[in-house]
């Protein structure tokens, strides 16, 4: 399981939340998790937490 790409986990989470997969970003220890990352590459261990944030687009405001 440690060599399985995390894309499936990310897609499953987004599906359960009812949001598009590109609307969230997943981080582990401040590092963005790419679809092709594996738990082994990131050093993920049991009980570790993956942070999930809403992806912010734009960010430019007109005053």
Automatic annotation (TrEMBL):
Main location: nucleus
Segments crossing the lipid bilayer: none
Protein's name in the database: Ubiquitin-like domain-containing protein
Record key words, sorted: Isopeptide bond, Ubl conjugation pathway
Record localization: Nucleus, PML body
Gene3D superfamilies documented for this protein: Phosphatidylinositol 3-kinase Catalytic Subunit, Chain A, domain 1 (3.10.20.90)
InterPro entries: Rad60/SUMO-like_dom (IPR022617), Ubiquitin-like_dom (IPR000626), Ubiquitin-like_domsf (IPR029071)
Pfam families given in the database record: Rad60-SLD
Phylogenetic placement of the source organism: Eukaryota, Metazoa, Chordata, Craniata, Vertebrata
Similarity-based family: Belongs to the ubiquitin family. SUMO subfamily.
Domain of life of the organism encoding this protein: Eukaryota
PANTHER family assigned to the protein according to its UniProt record, in alphabetical order: SMALL UBIQUITIN-RELATED MODIFIER
Domain Ubiquitin-like: 1-59
GO CC annotations on file: PML body
